[in-house]
Amino acid sequence: MTIGEMQPAVPVPMPPVRVRAGSAVFDIDTLDEALAFAQANPHPRGDYDGLIRRLQSAADSEECLEAANAFIWWAEANGIIAGRG
Q1: Distance CA 78, CA 23 (A)
Q2: For residue 26, what pLDDT band results from cuts at 50, 70 and 90?
Q3: What integer is the mean pLDDT of 25-50?
Q4: What is the pLDDT of residue 1?
Q5: How far is CA 61 from CA 48, 64, 67, in A?
Q6: What's the pLDDT at 3?
Q7: What is residue 3's three-state secondary structure?
Q8: DSSP for 15-35?
Q9: Cα(73)–Cα(77) distance, rounded to whole angstroms?
Q10: Which one of 6, 21, 47, 70 has the minimum C-beta count within 10 Å?
Q11: Which residues neighbour 65 within 8 Å (Cβ) at sequence distance 6 or greater?
């Protein structure tokens, strides 16, 4: 692969969700944002390691939807949902 063939990663959209980290509130609407938030704010409930793997490896539309749902379920399980899109 040459540098000319490399394409910048396009953020993969997901259903928007608002989450809390302490007193801060974040609007998450891409898998990259979900991954960054989860890595910066690990919480014990739910399958955290599985969530990270799903967010990192989602490649097709079905996997992306599963990763987005996993993030939302994880956030709900940890009581950090502050609202939905």
Answers
A1: 15
A2: very high
A3: 95
A4: 41
A5: 21, 5, 10
A6: 44
A7: helix
A8: EEEEEEETTEEEEEEEHHHHH
A9: 6
A10: 6
A11: none
- Alpha-carbon span 85 to 18, nearest angstrom: 7
Six-digit token string for 81: 């949902």
Cα–Cα distance, 67 to 46 (Å, whole number)? 13
Write out the two tokens for 70: 């996993």
3-state SS assignment for residue 69: helix
Helix (H) or strand (E) holding 79: none
pLDDT mean over 51-75: 94
Strand partners, 18: 27, 83
Alpha-carbon distance of 61 to 83, in angstroms, equals: 24
Inter-residue contact 83 to 29 (CB < 8 Å): no
- From start to end of 34-80, where are the E strands? none
* Average pLDDT along the chain: 88
Q: Which amino acid is at 19?
A: V
Average pLDDT over residues 39-49: 93
